[in-house]
């Protein structure tokens, strides 16, 4: 489950695992206090217009799989 704590974000399910684009019209806005329940292995996308603070919680294990490995901040080169 993801709970929006500050600001707002938009999120939607993504049915194509390797899609390079997403349907922004399918996204639903999530205001502070809003939440999204994401079952295990559910592909989805989310973004903010001005940044947001979110809380992700649930039963483990927890894994983030990036469609584009270059988007994974844990793989970033130091100093970039």
Plain-language structure description:
By secondary structure, this protein is an all-beta fold. Helix content is 0%, strand content 31%. The protein is built from no helices and six strands. It has strands at 2-7, 9-13, 28-30, 35-36, 44-47, 52-56. It has a three-stranded antiparallel β-sheet with strand order 4-1-6, with no helix packed on it. A three-stranded antiparallel β-sheet has the order 3-2-5, with no helix packed on it. The chain is globular. The N and C termini lie far apart (31 Å). The mean pLDDT is 79.
- What share of residues is helical? under 10%
> How large is the radius of gyration?
13 Å
User: Largest sheet, described in full?
Assistant: 3 strands, antiparallel
Q: Low-confidence segments, ≥5 residues, pLDDT <50? A: none
Distance between the termini: 31 Å
β-strand number: 6
Average pLDDT metric: 79
Q: List the strand order in the largest sheet.
A: 4-1-6
N to C succession of SSEs = EEEEEE
> Beta-sheet strand percentage?
25-35%
Q: Count of DSSP helices?
A: 0
Q: How would the global form be characterised?
A: globular
Q: Output the structural class.
A: mainly beta
